[in-house]
Write a structure and sequence with these properties.
By secondary structure, the protein is mainly alpha-helical. It has a two-stranded antiparallel sheet with strand order 1-2. The chain is globular, with a radius of gyration of 13 Å. The mean pLDDT is about 90.
Length: about 100
């Protein structure tokens, strides 16, 4: 199991958002995925872990549901949510854990 500090998660988001905290979570996740593919590196154990973190946070916050994730609606919902609106929530958790199942 890999542990990542929430400050590091925010730093990754800020770098890939070019400092614009008004960018949507979905736009940042797309940039993260493109970075991972281009550089053959991932944040977490698999390249899907970073998105999974935000899906889980969205479920915890009541902004998305598991059915939204399964039926593809989560991406559309996350296009409407800015990084700024979730910053406090991300930092509240202190750490994120990735396991070998990509969760």
């Amino acid at each position: 199991m890999q542990c990542t500090k929430s400050e590091d998660i925010v730093a990754i988001c800020l770098v890939l958002a070019e400092g614009d905290i008004q960018k949507s979570i979905e736009e940042i996740l797309t940039r993260v995925e493109n970075y991972q593919i281009k550089n053959n590196r991932h944040f977490g154990i698999s390249r899907y872990d970073f998105r999974g973190l935000f899906y889980e946070l969205g479920v915890t916050l009541g902004e998305i549901s598991y059915s939204d994730i399964l039926n593809g609606k989560a991406k559309k919902i996350l296009r409407e949510i800015s990084l700024q609106s979730w910053l406090d929530n991300i930092l509240e958790y202190k750490e994120a854990y990735f396991n070998d199942e990509g969760e």
